[in-house]
Each structure stands twice: as C-alpha cells, then as structure tokens.
Amino acid sequence: MNLQSLCKKMGFHAEVETVLRETGWEKSIETFPGIPDFMTLEFQKEYYPKIKSRINAMPAIAELAELTAQDKEIQMLAWHLHNALFLSGKWNCSHSLPLPEKQFGKNAGVFFLMIAISAIPLIEKTTKRLGLPAKYAAESATWLGGTVQIFAAAHNGLPGHDIRQTPWLKHTIDGVLFRIGRFEFWAKPLPPYVPAIYRNPEGRIIALCPDRWILNKEGFRVREDCTEAFFRTTLNHVGGKLTGIPISPFGYALPGKSVTLDDSEWKPVISPWDTVLEIHIPGGGGMTPEKVKASLQEAVTLFREHFHKEIPLFVCASWILNPEWEKRLPNSNLAAFQREVHLFPLEIGDGTDGLFFLFGRDDGDPLAYPADNSARRAMLDVIRDGGTLKSGGMFLLAEDLKDFGTQVYRTRSSVISSK
User: Fold this and answer.
1) 156: DSSP letter
2) In this structure, what DSSP letter does residue 378 have?
3) Which of 56-60, 222-226, 313-317 has the lowest mean pLDDT?
4) CA 381, chain centre distance (Å)
C-alpha cells in the first residue's frame, strides 16, 4: 500500500508521512487483519455507550463504519494508529495528526474517536488480568466521554476526539493508571515537583521549598531566565535543624520568610521508599467534595488490599490547582477542592495552562474564544487582566482524609497567608 498516496488522500502534509513511517507503518502492514473490528458499527454499538458521552456520535459512527468497510486505505490507517497507540506503543504525545477533513469532512474527529474507543477492550483485559472488579475498566472508559466534550468545545459541538490525548489511554492498558471514582491514580515514587513536607506531634504541617527553586516576588516558581526571577531558595540541614523557605497552603512560597525546624520535633511525612498516589483529574465535571473524598478513600483501600501498598500521600500537578480559581470562582468545585488540600507552586510555563481542557484548543487569540460559562469567563479574565495561566500543585496526607471537609491544612498549618 502506498503511504504517500494515502496521505494525499487524507489531506496530510509530508511530515505526517514521516510520522507514520517512524511509528511502525511497515510492521502494521505485516499484521494488517483486514477491516479492524473497532471500525465496525457492531463494535461501536457495544463500546460507545461505555464512554458515557453526553453527545450522540452514533449517526456519524455509522457513516464512517460504512465508508471504512468499502475502503482498504482507511482500514489500514485505522489499524496502524491502533497498533502504534495501543499495541506497539510507538506513538507518544510528541506525535500528532491533523484532522483528516479532506476524507471525512465534519466526521474527521469521529474517526479518531473510533480508534480511541478501541482501547476499551484492552483496558478490560488488563483489569481482568490484575484481578480487579470490572467496574474499574468501566470507570476508565468514561475518560473518553470527557475528551468528547473537549473536542466539541473547539468544533461547534461536533462529536470527536483529539488524537493528542489518545496516548494517555496506554497508561491504563499497561496497568499503571487506574480510574477510581472521580479521579485517576498513578502509584509512583515521590515526584520531584513536590516540596519537603514535615509534621510535628501536634499534627501541624509545614511545607518547605527544596534547594534551587526560583521564585518571583509573589512566591510563584519561574524559570531561571525569567525576567521576574527574584529569589533562589535553599534548604539547609545541619546540627539537627532544618532551615528553609515556607510555602503557604494557599499555593505560593514566602520568599521574605525563613523558618527553622528542630529534628526532635518535626519529622518528614514520607520516606524515599514510600509509594505515593499521583492524582489525575479527568474532564467531565461533577467534582463535588463528596465524590472527591469517596474517590480518595477508595483508592487508599484498593491499593492497601489489592496491591499491598500503604499510601501515605496524594499529590497532583494540574491547571485546576492554579490559586487564581479560588479568587475568581469561590463557589466552584475547583475552589472547594483547593481548600481541602495543601497547595504549592509549580514552575510557570508558557501561560496557556488549562486552555485546551476548557476550550478544546490553545492556538490563536484566547480572547476570541467563547466565554459562555463561568469557568471560561474566569480564565479569559485572567488573561485580560494581564495575569498568567499557570498550573499548581497539591498534596494531601492519607491520614488527613478523616478530616476532609474541615480545611485541615488551613487550620493546622504552621504557615498561613492569604493575599
């Protein structure tokens, strides 16, 4: 099969041909089974409902299934993307494809969606292999319902899926990422973006900046070459005493303040050999405090009883944890979540954090995007006011779950500040 002619048929530029070759095109040709089952209407009737999308894509799926059945080149492209994304793993987040609108028109995003849905049986197989209840595969499938909403936000309500998000499903297929209630969880060693965390016998918590964080005057992390760079942190431990720059539970460091902790009183909350759960927050809304707490509690239980790991700490890095949202959306579920965890700063990136997840795009002029709900208006207001869209981090000790709902880190922190 001539790859060059296929790319021309799909409307792909020359660079796409290179991407397809580098991700195992020849191997896909060798293993090509004919029309892939996931491109049939029967398959999609079974699996599309499992993503629990609020958008009905079945009419478009039916059109594409009929077209695919008659076209070997479409079948081959679909098989290659499935193989590269989910079987060989050669496709990663650095790879992308333009929407094949030349071939599929307004249904171009649905072509990518049908391929993404082909991950669901693989996830079900992994769940069964690990001896987990089938509900965990079912919950994982709903991640795709969130991506359909994201796609629709950028394409006038049309159903579809952005292929840039698809490699994320491979983590669930590989059995390292689990959807448990409202959140996804990934067990891993303590990520390097997390600060030093200490607790005393009274239960008070303090977080300190590690060595060599670069802060601006507001206490947010920036790159070293940033014009707003103001302060380089140090964390010194000598003679049984630890001295460093504290972090407010509201999500920023205090560069003008230094604290010293005595080893006899303050102990680190985590050891180097501990496993933490990194939280990932799927789209879809409904992140109520009740659902959040239930998700966290179930995760602790599952990892203790099934994987034999006692989880001491939850961590997360997300645009959702930008402290700006508590100010601009004080009554939102986002703000409610922030108040129950200890926030800390992450290094500020290119200033587009969160745009894609709210608007389905991050190109062009954001101020031209539709401001048709409170979250979108708040994000655009940050830009309009000269602010920076940034991500933030959080931690939550598993032992503090019993106090979830009481703003435990704001009531027991040894460093309290709100701007």
Assistant:
1) T
2) H
3) 222-226
4) 23
> Going by C-beta distance under 8 Å and a sequence separation of 6 or more, which residues neighbour residue 101?
11, 108
How does DSSP assign 71-138, residue by residue? -HHHHHHHHHHHIIIIIS----TT------HHHHGGGHHHHHHHHHHTHHHHHHHHHHHTT--THHHH
pLDDT band at 227; cut points 50, 70, 90: confident
Beta bridge partners of 278: 186, 315
Angle between helices 72-82 and 58-69 (to 10 degrees): 120
Q: What's the CA gap between 146 and 280, in Å, rounded?
A: 13
Written as one letter, the residue type at 241 is: K
* pLDDT value, residue 53: 95
284 pLDDT more than 90: no
Tokens read off for 202 = 């009274």
Assess contact for 340 and 407: CB atoms under 8 A: yes
Q: Which two tokens stand for residue 284?
A: 């879809």
Find out whether 354 and 334 touch, Cβ atoms under 8 Å: no
pLDDT of the residue at 94: 74
Would you call 373 exposed, middle or buried from its count of C-beta atoms within 10 A (0-12, 13-18, 19+)?
exposed
Give pLDDT tens digits for 244-257: 999 999 999 999 89
DSSP secondary-structure letter at 37?
G
How much is the pLDDT for 419?
Answer: 47
Cα–Cα–Cα angle for 222, 254, 318, rounded to 5 degrees: 50
Q: What is the pLDDT averaged over residues 221-239?
A: 91
Q: How far apart are CA 282 and CA 140, in angstroms?
A: 10
Structure tokens at 418: 């709100």
Contact residues for 39 (Cβ-Cβ < 8 A; gap 6+): 64, 65, 68, 69, 74, 75, 78, 114
Question: How far apart (Å, rounded) are the C-alpha atoms in residues 360 and 402?
Answer: 36
Domains in the chain with CATH codes: 3-172 (no CATH), 186-190+275-412 (3.40.630.120), 196-268 (no CATH)
pLDDT of residue 224: 86
Mean pLDDT, the chain, rounded, equals 94
**Residues ≥6 apart with Cβ < 8 Å to 304:** 310, 311
